[in-house]
Amino acid sequence: MIDLRLLREDPDRVRASQRARGEDVALVDSLLSADERRRASGTRFDELRSEQKRLGKLIPKAQGDEKAELLRRTGELSAAVKAADAEQHEAAEEAQRLLLELGNIVHPDAPIGGEEDFVVLEQHGTPRDFAAEGFTPRDHLELGELLGAIDTERGAKVSGSRFYYLTGIGALLELALVNAAIAQATAAGFTPMLTPNLVKPAAMAGTGYLGQVEDDVYHLDKDDLYLVGTSEVPLAAYHMDEIIDASRLPLRYAGFSSCYRREAGSYGKDTRGIFRVHQFDKVEMFVFTTPEEAEAEHQRLLAWEKQWLSSLELPFQVIELASGDLGASASRKFDCEAWVPTQGKYRELTSTSNTLEFQARRLGVRMRDTDGTRPLATLNGTLCAVTRTIVAILENHQLPDGSVRVPEVLRPYLGGREVLEPVASPTAAFSTNAK
RNA sequence: GGAGGCGUCGCCUAGUCCGGUCUAUGGCGCCGCACUGCUAAUGCGGUUUGGGCUUUACCGUCCAUCGAGGGUUCAAAUCCCUCCGCCUCCGCCA
Prior knowledge:
The protein is built from 13 helices and 18 strands. With 435 residues, it is an alpha+beta fold. The chain has 2 domains: 4-101, Helix Hairpins (Orthogonal Bundle), CATH 1.10.287.40; 115-430, 2-Layer Sandwich (BirA Bifunctional Protein, domain 2), CATH 3.30.930.10. Helix 8 crosses helix 13 (386-396). The radius of gyration is 27 Å and the shape is elongated.
């Protein structure tokens, strides 16, 4: 949520932001009037309550008629206080409800527009020219099956479409990626974290995932818990309702968790393979820092993502997302998109958002420094979304015979293996009877 | 899942039985000032969080806040109910 004071003092800025997002501008005026009502009813309650307390203190000492009169007046006041309290409650709830609907203020440098209006900032590496190399690239699923690494048929049999098994070398590849990513994050000063995959509504709402994207979230009705779509949620909520001394900032966490996404409304999109799935694992960077440092930290997160993709020797580009594609929480967002040869385009592998104080306000995470207690800033960035990274590695590093070159950074985590080779069956290479 | 205990403003703690003088006690820590070659010690003052009013700072003031939410009452940290969390024991279990 944003600062109500900003809304009062500069409503036009908030209106402009809502407009840029393609969201309800009238919300600003509903909110202004709800806030007005909240303050007015609050003042009324305060005054009545003050009077009630003042008179109440006289009662134990009073006698006879004087006491009877006091009891009569405080009796009346009691009813009035109760009514004012109810009104104040109602107004505060209304204001809060509207405030939670409001998106974050869009960063002034974010391009205005929708999903197609992103801006390409940089390109790294060069896509391979398979024609010049003399063969047609296989897609990641074909490669994954050849290597005995990916099994989507059985994933569908057991769990439905968009589910998969990583088998044999595929499983090892994930573990290698996760280990390498955690190693990079740890070297950069992040604290590794394994987080809960099920969270309460407060955590989900606080991070901003119960608004427009609510349909994309799994909910367990029986327990009123949500399956997280990213460890950003439990990491952001880790310090919920806490006040953090500024000297401890920045707090940098590298979370590893499964991520669950219903992918509602994406029917027919990316149906082949494991590019878009209901469940995948991810190493996520999450930072609590001061609002003053947020912008610079955002650049650092982007730099760590670039370092990661470069170390995997993947060609990729960096884009800045347009205002309409930011999601409720982000004021600004960069994606790194890796080249996918068989699709002939760049696809999102990582994403980093600066949410400023938006999530912190909702979650009640504050900092204390010489200026007192105030909300801090939170930022997040993907380090390694495993399935999509596997897609990019298989396709970009494939060889004519269907084997796949292992980027050097992963070799220590794969027993020194330099190439992944096709197998007769997923279990063949791991069976004790092999060779 | 069952039984019991506990939850006080950073930490510890008094208060809860018996409602009002609780504006929540004391200690530790922390901050400021004084004293002091320096440090230590000592003394004095301050130290939950949120909201409102005062111009948005300062100062001041009012209200809320004793795990959360309801209720009883003129009045709730204190009495009643529901929920949450932690601890102990029992049952079940990876």
